[in-house]
Design a protein that fits this description.
15 helices, elongated, alpha+beta, 304 residues, 5 strands, single chain, five-stranded antiparallel β-sheet
C-alpha cells in the first residue's frame, strides 16, 4: 500500500511539472541559470527578471572583462535599485579598469557607495585611486574611501589622507586615515618632509609592520655618516657619548633607544624642556651583514 502511494505521488509530481511547462511555454526552463559568457549576455537582455538576475550573478562569477560593456549598459538603464546594486557588484568582480568612470559616478549614490568603493579597490589603478581621493571630500563615503586607499597603498594618497586627518573632527575618520597613512608608509617609506631629514640616495626602505623608518644601504658606514654630517651640519656621536650627553633621560633599554647599541648616532633635532635639551629626532647608523642600516625615528617624549 505504501509503495503504491509513493508511485502515485511521484507520477502526480511529474504530471504537475509537465503541465506547468506547457502552461508557461517553457518559462520554468528559463529560470535555469546561464552557464557561458554568450548565454549569460543573452539572458541579460531577457524580460524575465529571474533570468536577468541570474545572468548578472553568473557574469560576476565568470570574471570575464568582455561582459563589462553589457553590465555597464544595464546599470545605466536600470531603474530598479536592486538591479543596479547587483550590476555594480558584478562589475567590481570583473576588476576591469574600463569600469572606473561608472564606479566613480556611483560614489554619489548612497545606496551604491560602499560597493563602488570595494570595486575601485579591486581595480586599484591610478584613475581608481584618484576617484577614491575625491571620495575623501564626501562625508558619506570618506571613511570607506580612506580605508580603500589604505588597502591599495598608493603613495599619491598620502597627502590627501594627511589633510583629512588634520581637518576632520570625526574620530573614526581620523583613525581610519591614520591607519591608511601608516600602511602606505610601511610599504613605500616616509617622505623627506615627514622624516625631517634627507633621504640617503642609495638607501632602500625596508617595509615592516611596526611602521618604523628603516633603510639599508650597501655603502659603508663612513660614507653614510659623511652624508648626514654634511646635510645636518652635525657630527655623529658614539653610543657612550650619546648616553653621557643625555644620561639624565636615556638608558640602553628605555623606550625610544634600542638595547642593541648603534655604531653612530646623529641627533637631528633637539627639544628643550625645563631649561635642558633632549633629543627629539634621531638617526641610528649600524653595520648589519656588510650593509649599513639607517633607522630614523622620533625619540621618546618627542612631540609629533
Amino acid at each position: 500500500m505504501l509503495r503504491r502511494n509513493r508511485r502515485f505521488s511521484l507520477r502526480a509530481l511529474i504530471l504537475i511539472v509537465v503541465s506547468l511547462c506547457l502552461m508557461t511555454g517553457g518559462a520554468v526552463r528559463a529560470q535555469t541559470p546561464c552557464m557561458g559568457l554568450d548565454d549569460c549576455l543573452q539572458d541579460l537582455k531577457s524580460s524575465d527578471a529571474t533570468a536577468r538576475s541570474g545572468a548578472i550573478f553568473m557574469l560576476g562569477n565568470l570574471k570575464d572583462k568582455r561582459a563589462t560593456p553589457a553590465l555597464v549598459e544595464l546599470f545605466k538603464e536600470a531603474r530598479d535599485p536592486g538591479v543596479r546594486l547587483s550590476a555594480i557588484k558584478a562589475i567590481g568582480s570583473l576588476k576591469d579598469p574600463a569600469a572606473v568612470p561608472v564606479l566613480t559616478e556611483s560614489l554619489e549614490d548612497k545606496d551604491l557607495q560602499q560597493d563602488a568603493v570595494r570595486a575601485l579597490v579591486k581595480i586599484a589603478n591610478k584613475p581608481a585611486v584618484l576617484a577614491l581621493i575625491r571620495g575623501l571630500k564626501n562625508e558619506d563615503v570618506r571613511t570607506a574611501a580612506a580605508q580603500g586607499l589604505g588597502e591599495i597603498a598608493d603613495p599619491s594618497a598620502k597627502e590627501p589622507l594627511l589633510k583629512l586627518f588634520h581637518e576632520t573632527a570625526d574620530e573614526r575618520v581620523k583613525g581610519v586615515s591614520a591607519l591608511a597613512i601608516q600602511r602606505i608608509n610601511s610599504i613605500w617609506g616616509p617622505s623627506e618632509r615627514e622624516m625631517g631629514v634627507p633621504w640617503y640616495p642609495k638607501a632602500e626602505f625596508i617595509p615592516n609592520t611596526r611602521g618604523e623608518w628603516v633603510f639599508i644601504s650597501k655603502d659603508p658606514l663612513e660614507r653614510v655618516s659623511d652624508f648626514f654630517k654634511k646635510h645636518l651640519k652635525k657630527s655623529p656621536l658614539s653610543f657612550p657619548a650619546f648616553k653621557k650627553r643625555y644620561e639624565n633621560g636615556f638608558t640602553e633599554t628605555q623606550e625610544g633607544v634600542p638595547a642593541n647599541q648603534p655604531g653612530l648616532i646623529f641627533v637631528a633635532q633637539e627639544q628643550e624642556f625645563q631649561g635642558r635639551k633632549y633629543p627629539a629626532k634621531l638617526i641610528f647608523l649600524q653595520v648589519s651583514q656588510k650593509e649599513t642600516e639607517i633607522k630614523i625615528f622620533n625619540a621618546a617624549g618627542a612631540p609629533d
